[in-house]
Amino acid sequence: MVFRVVIFREGDWWVAQCVDHDVAAQARSLRDLPLEFEAALVADVTWHHRNGIDLLMNLVPAPEPLQRRWAEAVAEGYCRSISLKRVPEAEAELCVVG
């Protein structure tokens, strides 16, 4: 499974917002952001699992403005994939937007 993630600045913070699921994280540095996002995703997946909820059946798409930002970042080529070590068979496609 691939989670599409938009990365942007918000004041002094870097924010990672998943486009496909309501998961977000923030960090002071861009370098730390992927780890913070992975931790947030692990917490969310764990919560769903413990409560007997199928994560894939509960995906709610991001609001249209965030989806547009994702598409713009992809078009500009500001994306890279990372493996999520603590989420089996998952990776994140990270796209930085201005």
Q: How far from one another are the termini?
A: 26 Å
Largest sheet strand order: 3-2-1-5-4
**SS-derived structural category:** alpha+beta
Residue windows where pLDDT falls under 50 for at least 5 positions: none
Judging from the principal axes of the Cα atoms, what is the shape? globular
N-to-C SSE string, H for helix and E for strand:
EEEHHEE
Give the averaged pLDDT, no decimals. 87
What is the topological layout?
Blueprint: E1 2-10, E2 13-18, E3 24-27, H1 33-50, H2 64-76, E4 79-83, E5 91-96
Parallel strand pairs: 1-5
Antiparallel strand pairs: 1-2, 2-3, 4-5
Description of the structure:
The protein is of the alpha+beta class and about 100 residues long. The chain is about 30% helix and about 30% strand. Strands 3-2-1-5-4 form a 5-stranded mixed β-sheet, sandwiched between helices. A hairpin with a 7-residue loop joins strand 4 and strand 5 (about 90-95). The protein is globular. The mean pLDDT is about 85.
